[in-house]
Amino acid sequence: MTSHDCSLSVLHAxxxxxxxxxxxxxxxVAAALPEALGTIGVDTRLVIPGFPDVISALRDDRVVYEAxxxxxxxRMQLRLGTLPSRNTPVYVIDAPSLYARPGxxxxxxxxGDWGDNLIRxxxxxxxxxxxxxxxxDPHWRPDVLHVHDWHPALALAYVAxxxxxxxxxxTIHNIDYQGRFPPADFNRLDxxxxxxxxxxxxxxxxxxxxxxxxxxLAHKVTTVSPTYAREVTEGQHGHGIDSVIxxxxxxxxxxxxxxxxxxxxxxxxxxxxxxxxxxxxxxxARCKTTLRSRVxxxxxGDAPIFVVVSRLGWQKGSDLIANAADDLVARGAxxxxxxxxxxxxxxxxxxxxxxxGGMVTIHxxxxxxxxxxxxxxxxxxxxxxxxxxxxxxQMYAKRYGTLPLVHAVGGLADxxxxxxxxxxVERESSLTATIDRVLQTHQDRPRWMQMVSTAMRxxxxxxxxxxxxxxIYLQILGNTPS
Length: 482
Ligand code: ADP
Ligand code: GLC
Known about the structure:
Blueprint: E1 8-13, H1 25-39, E2 42-49, H2 52-57, E3 59-67, E4 76-82, E5 90-94, H3 96-99, H4 117-133, E6 144-148, H5 154-158, E7 167-172, E8 180-181, E9 203-204, E10 207-209, H6 210-217, E11 220-223, H7 226-231, H8 235-238, H9 242-246, E12 252-254, H10 282-295, E13 305-309, H11 318-330, E14 334-338, H12 343-355, E15 360-363, H13 368-377, E16 380-383, H14 393-399, E17 403-407, H15 410-415, E18 422-424, H16 431-443, H17 445-457, H18 463-476
Parallel strand pairs: 1-2, 1-6, 2-5, 6-7, 7-11, 11-12, 13-14, 13-16, 14-15, 16-17, 17-18
Antiparallel strand pairs: 3-4, 4-5, 8-10, 9-10
The chain binds adenosine-5'-diphosphate and alpha-D-glucopyranose.
């Protein structure tokens, strides 16, 4: 882009994309942000691996580049096409030996991370880098490369010596996931040696660390909420990488994620047995009844239902929910858990389900329709995360009049107020005490309905965040003061 030219073009690189490949919020963001940028005039494209459901959904595609033997792999074709109901063109890396596998993008269905993840994600980084340099598609070259999380972060290493420089943004969605590999793997990446020298951008305590390269080599680093941007520079949430992030000083900024209301709005949600809005909540009552029969809860009339829609694990504080479940049931409330992850925590919820039949249930499948029904049919959503970079479900829940109960960290602190939900700070209160507060407020119908109404009216749409990202792109291109 030149100063005479008001068009701005950006290539996003990510591994997940709702609804084709999703393990969590990254998929929702990678789907919604490029579209939101498109609506404010940014010429946006996306590059993702060719996972099976992506390949089968791809339309009007053509091969823009192909290679054999790249990073030691067999055939790779780069296809440019579109996906149903989307405006953002997508480059799909069709490399069956790397990506034609069922299930999660990261791990074997029963056997942990794929053994060749280094090359699977290096390929994504390499492709994003060469596209950003203009080397793969002669018809399109972006002004900015925007990389999400560690998986494509090697793109920033592949452009580290490019001239002219490739302007770049790296977004940290979660510093728990860093992309660490043994140092000997460096020789397989076809990168200049200075990158993995001791204290170099890729070296971290003797390992290769994709996340560190992303943080150190991008022109700007963003996190998905302002509070998390502060937390990742502090020891307690930094996972040892806080000093690396601190070293980026003013290049770090937190931009809150948004909600795609064309997917998450009870007025037009295709997954619900009845739709509803602020002015007519009859449909929400029907969703509650359907939820109970769908997940096997007793019909307890107006008794409140607490819902969880989440990966289960330490980060999410799922063990705290299991600890509080007996008290929750003793107070006459019900609990629905839609989620899986840590096997021990799953077992604890199954044991609670056996002991409190009809009052506690767990469903471990990853089911978009069930997630929507739970968020619509519940009264409160519990999210006591120990860390939460942003969190999307609490924002979804607000739109469905399901009041969030959260631990005030990261994006939870930035999106749940006393008018729209319940939050606790560990040193001052516990989850059980906060559940009591929810139950007391639930008895006070005028107060509860006031909160429901305020929550449902909150606007978390992507527009403001897309503007904030555009400003960052313009800053690094030197078109506005930083
Ligand atoms: P994270 O990305 O850390 O998992 P977020 O709150 O940002 O947390 O996003 C979680 C996303 O995954 C939401 O879209 C939520 O609805 C979805 N999700 C989590 N668990 C399930 C499940 N078992 N079935 C369907 N969707 C789920
Ligand atoms: C990560 C975070 C979550 C965030 C999501 C999307 O998965 O754990 O808090 O909402 O990314 O940015």
